[in-house]
Design brief:
The complex is a heterodimer of chains A (636) and B (174). With 636 residues, chain A is α+β, with helices and mostly antiparallel strands. Chain A is built from 18 helices and 28 strands. The chains are: A alpha+beta (636), B mainly alpha (174).
């Protein structure tokens, strides 16, 4: 069970020993946290040894503020019983406006709104309005908590992180990711591109020159990136992909084909029944995983109410036939990315596989065939990006001295001139940190102030680029137009943050700004959120503990309900009575019941349900389930 | 020698004939010592210093990687203070007229060969300047006068700008 974090307590505790810098892969489907220790990167797991933390956050029924009831695996487990308050794939929303999202909106199960004062989206869950930054911060907090538990350190000693983002993330999305980290009490030392992190994990930065392709097929997204490595500097040459293509689609094709057969053979439409649908998807996922290591397996599904007993042998050839069109789509995107980069498959020196779905043998083979060379699969594809993040954390922490990740700015930066065109000051692909100086002057006699608008983008007209910020140089001595000499200096730091200074030479007056994009949350909004979290810390802890135990209890109750009939007929008299009582006690829980009260009833119900679980176990292979919990068994 | 001399910043010999490999190895070596990532946990002051220093190094590298800029540094030339020869100016006027009429007539082959000519004219001047710069950097004198070098430099700069400008214009419009 994930211990739920509390905001704001950091300051109240004595200064702890400073822990390592975290490397976090904040993913669409799941997230990972890693550290660099004892000379190597290492992914940290939960108590059960699972490295993946589902990027899923659930919020309680009557929530007055933004504290989640569950994050990670637990949130995913309760998703089917709490679908309207469970948020998946928030990464699709971060740093995006309603306009940016466009047709994506239709695919989201929850409602989105846009606040008046900024264009970042809000997720609407009844009275609760959440920003994507807040939801992401809850995932990051869970990562931090996991790291604290794994390292046996206080969470407040883990305050710094390297976080990975997709190569195509724009400034607003990157900034929003930083804000999410800040809300989780983490200082982002560096955002690293996911493909770059993957290349770093494989030590490809040691090569002098190379053209690298990173093929990243995750649960729900596909990204292909073409990188060029020249003298230790990674440049992203092109990216392409499909934000709705991944391993989940592999599960779906298995599920759909089997559901079709079930309908034909048994007349039961399993897809129309939400519970059966969830079950089918879980079985399909298991079948897919098995087929990555075995030649054939069995799809077994039963549904008591409709007397459906379905069993089907599925071998890898069938699976391969089903997913072939999906794999072809990834190759089409790959060809597109290569074309954008002006390269052919044979120009590529290294191919790196990322994402759990690249374990599927057909995917691996198709990629190898496309490039005419085997792809790197030595590292766990789920962990590659997190391992790279940990190496960058090692570089920043001083543990890694022989590597250095040199980066470039993906977009040009410029200043808007009087006629609305852009005077480019730092060109795209310049190594960062980068600097540039440019001279400007007044265009009206007696003009005493110049307004500078800083834009990012490759277009000639200012209006076509993204405005990053504006500032004004005031107090210029009154002179005829064109006489004042204003030197503007840009300094783009290694984090891609821009500092602009303007100085009028004759008077020596200066102005400067740090550019934070207008898009996203303002500093004040972030402060308010942090303050609110602080104010509610105690109440939150209680609420979250309660919600956690309650959701666990709900799961066990649902599981027991499913097998009540069988329990009644098969259990002994006293066992049945005990289960019945425990179940009724659990049902009697209301708003007044304390956390301890709920926990007591949960324990009792789990124990009372044990004989039932034993009974059901006879149907299942003992080996496979020995370590599972009662509720897991009852779920089967 | 100015304080922010790119050769000195990158600890490279003041020579024209530097290879790309030599220059990027120098940047990498300097980066290993000065990149802000090496100062991630240092004080804000040290970090700012490293940011500025690495920005200087990256800028120095960009300058040295450009052969014309390398020549300007070694021969202490400045396009603003030199003038092209009258003959060159006449040539360029003719070139522009030829190019415009070829473009109007849709003679693509002619346009391409004119642009190639422009590139070759640039290369000839760059080679001659490079030779002079290499001699100077090895402490030998050149038989070219300062005025002639200045003129060559201005012409090379002009030719390169024209070529880039024309390449941009002839790019297909989306």
């Amino acid at each position: 069970m994930i211990e739920l974090p509390i905001y704001g307590q950091d300051n109240t505790l004595p200064a702890a020993e400073e822990g390592p810098i975290l490397g976090i892969d904040l993913g669409t489907t799941h997230s990972l946290v890693a550290v660099f220790q004892h000379g190597r990167p290492r992914v940290l797991t939960d108590e059960q040894g699972d490295p993946l933390l589902p990027s899923v956050v659930a919020y309680p029924e009557q929530a007055s503020h933004n504290q989640p009831s569950a994050v990670g695996r637990e949130a995913r487990e309760q998703a089917s019983t709490n679908p309207t308050r469970t948020i998946h794939s928030v990464k699709r929303l971060i740093g995006r406006s309603l306009k940016d999202l466009g047709h994506e909106l239709a695919t989201l199960p929850y409602q989105l709104a846009s606040a008046e004062d900024n264009d970042g989206v809000r997720i609407v869950l009844g009275d609760l309005h959440l920003t994507a930054e807040e939801v992401s911060s809850h995932i990051l907090t869970a990562c931090r908590e996991r790291a604290a538990a794994a390292l046996k350190m206080a969470p407040q000693s883990l305050q710094r992180a390297v976080i990975t983002v997709p190569a195509y993330f724009d400034d607003a999305q990157r900034q929003a990711t930083r804000t999410a980290a800040r809300l989780a009490g983490l200082e982002v030392l560096r955002l690293v591109g996911e493909p770059t992190a993957a290349a770093l994990a494989y030590g490809l930065d040691k090569r002098e020159q190379a053209k690298i392709v990173v093929y990243d097929l995750g649960g729900g997204t596909f990204d292909i990136s073409v990188l060029e490595l020249a003298d230790g500097v990674f440049r992203v040459l092109s990216t392409a992909g499909d934000t709705h293509l991944g391993g989940d689609d592999f599960d779906r094709v298995i599920m759909v084909d089997c559901a079709e057969e079930i309908r034909r053979l048994h007349g039961f439409d399993a897809l129309a029944d939400p519970e059966s649908r969830t079950k089918l998807r879980q079985i399909a996922e298991q079948v897919k995983k098995t087929l990555s290591v075995q030649e054939e397996t069995e799809f077994r599904f039963s549904h008591a109410a409709s007397e459906t007993e379905y069993q089907r042998k599925i071998d890898w050839r069938m699976f391969q036939r089903w997913i072939a069109p999906l794999v072809q789509r990834t190759l089409d995107h790959t060809a597109l990315a290569l074309k954008d980069a002006g390269l052919r498959p044979e120009d590529i020196d290294e191919v790196v596989l990322v994402g759990g779905s690249t374990r599927v043998p057909l995917v691996k083979a198709a990629v190898a065939q496309f490039f005419g060379r085997p792809a790197h699969d030595e590292l766990d594809p789920d962990q590659v990006v997190a391992l790279g993040a940990a190496i960058q954390a090692g570089i920043l922490g001083g543990a890694v001295r022989d590597a250095l990740l040199l980066d470039v700015t993906p977009l040009s930066l410029g200043i808007v001139t009087a006629d609305g065109t852009v005077s480019r000051v730092i060109e795209r692909n310049a190594s960062i940190p980068a600097q540039a100086k440019e001279g400007f002057t007044t265009y009206v006699d007696g003009q005493t102030a110049i307004k500078f608008t800083v834009v990012q983008g490759e277009r000639e007209m200012a209006a076509d680029n993204r405005t990053l910020g504006e500032f004004e140089l005031r107090g210029i001595p009154s002179m005829p137009a064109g006489l004042p000499q204003v030197a503007v200096q840009f300094l783009l730091d290694a984090n891609g943050m821009l500092q602009v200074k303007a100085k009028e030479q004759s008077s020596g007056i200066e102005a400067k700004i740090e550019i934070a994009p207008k898009h996203g949350l303002t500093d004040e909004q972030v402060e308010t959120m942090l303050q609110e979290a602080w104010d509610h810390a105690d109440q939150d802890l209680e609420l979250r503990r309660r919600a956690e135990v309650k959701s666990r209890l709900d799961q066990v109750m649902i599981a027991v309900t499913k097998h009540l009939e069988q329990a009644k007929t098969s259990l002994g008299e006293s066992e049945w009575q005990r289960l019945q009582e425990a179940y009724e006690d659990a049902q009697a829980i209301d708003e007044q019941t304390t956390v301890e009260g709920i926990r007591g009833r949960l324990d009792e119900l789990e124990q009372a349900a044990n004989p039932l679980a034993q009974l059901l176990m006879n149907d299942v292979a003992m080996e496979a389930v020995r370590d599972q919990k009662v509720s897991d068994l009852l779920d089967k | 020698m100015p304080a922010d001399d790119p050769f000195r910043l990158l600890e490279l010999p003041r020579r024209y004939s530097l290879t790309d490999g030599e220059m990027s190895a120098a940047l990498r070596k300097a980066g290993m010592a000065w990149h802000p990532d090496r100062f991630a946990l240092a004080s804000a002051e040290e970090r700012d210093h490293a940011e500025q220093r690495m920005a200087d190094l990256n800028e120095a590298f960009e300058q040295l990687a450009d052969p014309l800029h390398r020549i300007a540094l070694l021969l202490e030339l400045d396009a603003k203070n030199s003038t092209a020869s009258p003959a060159f100016l006449m040539e360029m006027m003719e070139f522009r007229e030829d190019l415009a009429s070829a473009q109007d007539a849709g003679q693509n082959d002619k346009v391409i060969s004119l642009l190639q000519q422009l590139g070759e004219d640039y290369q000839v001047r760059l080679d001659r300047l490079g030779e002079a710069a290499e001699s100077v950097s090895q402490g030998q004198s050149t038989n070219a006068t300062r005025e002639s070098l200045g003129a060559l430099f201005t012409e090379a700069t002009y030719l390169r700008q024209s070529r880039e400008e024309l390449a941009r214009q002839s790019r297909p419009t989306p």
